[in-house]
Design brief:
2 domains, signal, five-stranded mixed beta sheet, mainly beta, five-stranded antiparallel beta sheet
Length: about 200
Amino acid sequence: MRRTVLLASCLTVLAGCGSGGDDAAPGEGAASTSTPAPVADVGDTVAFTDRVGGTATITLDGVFRTDRADSSQLIADVTVTAAGGAVSVDPLRFRAQTVEGSSVDPGNGVIGRPAEGGIAFDVPEGEVLISYVDPDGEVLVAFRINLASQVPPDDEVEFPPFSCDMGVDGIPICEGDVPDSVGVYRTPDGVLVGD
């Protein structure tokens, strides 16, 4: 609930800010001139201080992929908690880029945008770096997301395969990872299960 309110309040702040001085092309961030921030992992909580002295933490709660008509989109679920003072968090200051070498500039990449379930990025599959930058492009927080962390949402989880055929006595003969919902069945070698 806190995340939803936070993103809504950020969008309200953005609506009155205008376009700002960012000359980057849509979907791309300006290069950062700062030194790279320490890189955290999915599930980690990282503290930061903004340029006016407000302190907060960002937790990358999780990420997942969702398929679109022409691409795959990465959705990041983040929680931001102010620790001292008022901290304005802008979803459009999140950046994501694929990691193709041993080093990356976290200030570069595609710009995030609010989406159902978090912040969306149009980045290809693979290892990804997500960063949060201040208005001047300085990296405040960075997270590395490996491919295994980009799990599908709960309603798209693939279940282990199993198969059943009806036996001559009316009891199904099943093999594989048979769920409990099948009830009583026999294995292919005749063992009765669930009786």
